[in-house]
Amino acid sequence: MAVNEVDLRRWWSEGRVCHGLWSLLPGVVTAEVLARTGPDYVVVDLQHGAVSEAELPGVAAAIRSAGSVPLVRTRSPLFADVGRPLDLGACGVIVPNVRDADHAREVVAASRYAPAGGRSIGRLSGGADEPLVIAMVETSTALDDLDALLGVPGLDGIYVGPGDLSLSLGLDGADRVAELGGVLSSTIARAVAAGVPVGVHASTGEDAARHAAEGATIVTVAVDVFSVGEAMAHHLEVARSRSQDND
């Protein structure tokens, strides 16, 4: 069954878990292969991934035609960087480095046409009339202002970035893993209590399932570049070990 941004917004509001994939690799073929595996959404990462803006219309169309929702992690929270992928086919944005509630309001306004916001008319390809807007919580300031941030009108959810958040909180050491886990669990609980959809970035299905068990509904289960690398390494190991057994 094909999924669209209206479905995601409704399902999240109902507390339904939605599963997605994260893409760092470029190309329409990559996007189509990922979307054909059956995720509810595919996030194209413009901040750290290799996809260019010029590819985005084709990438977004491939994801949508395969039955999934194309979301984009924007390059930055700047006004132009929020609106640009929405003009090029994205049905929603996950915006990094959101500082606090006031900043989140600016992000929402950048995704909405007047009078609700300041987005300029000029959508070029695909996209959505009311795109999804998700703010990343990955700074200590966003965490400090979390209660107010969760109440920002027009925000469809929050998405926690454990890597940058651990750096911002000084919890990036191996001996602070448990403490960081407590912060992630607390953030999920606070969002759930406020009735706001929440996700925590994960690279494995096991981590994703753990977050979902705590109440996360924006559940990213894998990152393409890591999964491809792990799969290739596994098959090489199997082939080489069996070749050695036959020597």
UniProtKB/TrEMBL annotation:
Lineage, highest ranks first: Bacteria, Bacillati, Actinomycetota, Actinomycetes, Propionibacteriales
Protein name: Aldolase
Domain spans labelled HpcH/HpaI aldolase/citrate lyase: 20-228
Sorted UniProt keywords: Lyase, Metal-binding
InterPro entries reported for this sequence: Aldolase/citrate-lyase_domain, HpcH-HpaI_aldolase, Pyrv/PenolPyrv_kinase-like_dom, Pyrv_kinase-like_dom_sf
GO terms of molecular function: aldehyde-lyase activity; metal ion binding
Family from the record: Belongs to the HpcH/HpaI aldolase family.
One GO term describing the cellular component: cytoplasm
PANTHER family on file: 2-KETO-3-DEOXY-L-RHAMNONATE ALDOLASE, PHOSPHOENOLPYRUVATE CARBOXYLASE FAMILY PROTEIN
Organism from which the protein derives: Nocardioides piscis
Tagged with keyword NADP: no
Keyword Metal-binding: yes
One Pfam family matching this protein: HpcH_HpaI
